User: Fold this.
Amino acid sequence: MSGRTGLGLLEVAILEAVESAGGGAGQPYRRTSDVLVLLEDVHGVGPRHAYPLVVDLAVPWLRHLPLLDGYGNLGSRHGDQSAEAKYTEIRLSPTGALALAAERGEVGPLPLDLIEGTMWRGGRVPAFDPRRVLDALAAGAAEAGPPTTASGGRVGGEIDVLLAGGEARLRFVCTIIEEPGILVITEVPLCAPTDQVVQFVAARASRHERLPLGHLDRGDLPALPSAPVIHISDDSTGAGIRIVCRLAPDADAVEARRWLTAIWPVTVEADCRLPAPMPDRLRTWHGGDGSGVAALAAMSSGR
Amino acid sequence: MVDLPCRPVLLAAALARRGARVVVVGGTARWLRHGGRRPLDLDVCVRPDAVAGLVSALEGLGATATGVLLLRSLDVRVDTPWGPLDVFVADVPASSSVAVQGIAVDVEVLA
Assistant:
């Protein structure tokens, strides 16, 4: 892992390949398949391995600060697959360009590992809010707030244990708002596809749970309570997530929220651990002349 | 933040309610027998001749799995509304029943 940005070798190689293909920040988009050819020629990493990572570096729901700017179908929060690489285009995002500059020593180091963690790629280190991390580093503070996810939602659980450097079980919970007669899911944390949220809430609300189970519904089994949600629809658009859960007429909204929150993946639990206590991570991170942090802060404030 | 139920245990009960003949193993078995850290997923063993019943039960829960896949791969993760389920198609270990919400769930006997 790079000491200047916290990026992995392949991540840096992808940024270099995008730039080599003429896809610098603000420059024209470049066909992703052309970038993948460069990656294979220079680094021996084939498209089947590299393309998923290219997509991960570009989509805004995995990282707070995407390193690539993509054009075309790069998949969706709903779980849709991206189009083939020959039909998508990429270029460096401003953050990606700054990361390359930091790698070359043109600006000071960037705390991308402190901000993004590793959960976006399946690891155990959660992400933190970029603004709070940068403010903490600038002020020499010992804390940068609780973990956050790029896609929103709430993070709870053993946050104090996590920040102290221990193994902590965290909960990542969808944002649920209440409107008359309905509960609406508006944010889904981590990588849970919204289609799966809809599928499993619908399954729990379906007649399988609320009606007799036919030959399996033996008299000695306790009856299951009715589900408080009687209908679910996905009204999401490109502008945002809106999964509408219509409540039964006699449902209590508080109980309905509890019922909804208990469904996986409306709530996902994960065991997380920081490489060191958060105060130590902030204290021991070296920003060189501070120019990288200052540039990233200026960029983040303009987001 | 509201308390969560132990979803792997509820999943085991839901499978048993629908007639799946599985034995709970792994972390959920340890939790049911000895307590400790709450499990994040459910591990079950199922004999090959009981795979069809498990697939039927999973369909009833809104989860997707096929008997062909389970019998071919033998070790399969299935996502469910109660969280991930790891299925091991194999001879089942010695087990005894534990009552969950009034339903008998077969759980591996641990030393």
